[in-house]
Amino acid sequence: MSVLDELRQTTRIDHEAVEQLVAIERPDFGVDDYAAFLSGMLAAHEPFEHGWPALSQLGLWLPDLTTRAKAALLRHDLRQLGREPAPADTRIDTSGVYVAGEALGALYVLEGSTLGARFVLARLVPLLGDGIRGATQYLEAYGETRAQRWRTFTAALERAASDAALRASIVTGAGRMFARVRGLLSDAMARD
Ligand code: HEM
Asked: How many angstroms does the Cα of residue 41 sit away from the middle of ligand 1?
């Protein structure tokens, strides 16, 4: 089984849980919910991205690593919505992801979310109106190159996973990042 298939299997429940938390299908999904989603994702991305330079192997696997950072896009979108994002989180916190294999697994979660983003976007525009388009840099990350970026990422993932110990570490890291995203979205999106 490819590591990608293993990751899909081991994180299927997590994905269902985050979809439920975001609840983009709700008819009353509003701009506050969208802002809460962006805040939760910012809290997941920012400290993790600050940890990248300490994980040099990650940059060797993915030479385009720094262009995969998304905290700045999330901050931009929040500001466009008139929300002042939480102050920049400058901690180096790899969220329990302390070795490069785990970080690659964590990155699977965040890079994979760019695939779902176009579905979220397709739902968001009719729901919130065309005006929302100024605040969708994060959901539109990679633009036309989205599929290409995903292929580059998964190729690096499969290469790294040819080492059995690394493969186990990738699966651990993906589980940890999904758990973190679930916690952060659950806090950010708590509805009455
Ligand atoms: C309401 C919100 C979401 C919806 C509707 C959604 C929907 C989807 C869909 C339809 C795909 C498959 C896309 C394709 O194969 O081209 C996908 C993939 C994925 N999504 Fe989501 N998603 C959502 C939120 C998230 C979040 C918040 C995360 C994690 C931060 C996430 C992580 C992933 C991952 C890792 C994959 C890749 C699965 C794989 O192919 O291995 N998604 N999502």
From this structure: 13
Atom 22 of ligand 1, residue of closest alpha carbon: 116
User: Which residue stretches of the chain have pLDDT < 70?
Assistant: 89, 91-98, 191-192
Q: pTM score > 0.90 for this model? A: yes
Domain coordinates in residue numbering, the chain:
3-188
The residues, any chain, with a CB within 8 Å of residue 129's CB and separated by 6 or more, are none
Rounding to the nearest 10 degrees, give the CA dihedral for residues 94, 157, 167, 42: 20
In angstroms, the CA 105 to CA 94 distance is 12
Q: Is 20 touching ligand 1 by the criterion CB < 6 Å?
A: no
Say which CATH superfamily domain 3-188 falls into: Heme oxygenase-like (1.20.910.10)
DSSP code, position 85: P
Structural contact between residues 71 and 42, judged by C-beta atoms closer than 8 angstroms: yes
Q: pLDDT tens-digit profile of 53-98?
A: 888 899 999 999 999 999 999 999 999 999 988 877 676 665 566 6
Q: Amino acid identity of 145?
A: T
| R_g of the chain, CA atoms, integer Å | 16
Calculate how far, in angstroms, residue 55's C-alpha sits from the geometric centre of ligand 1.
25
Report whether 158 contacts 91 (CB < 8 A): no
Report the alpha-carbon distance of residue 117 to residue 141 in Å, rounded. 9
User: What's the gap in Å between 16 CA and the centre of ligand 1?
Assistant: 9
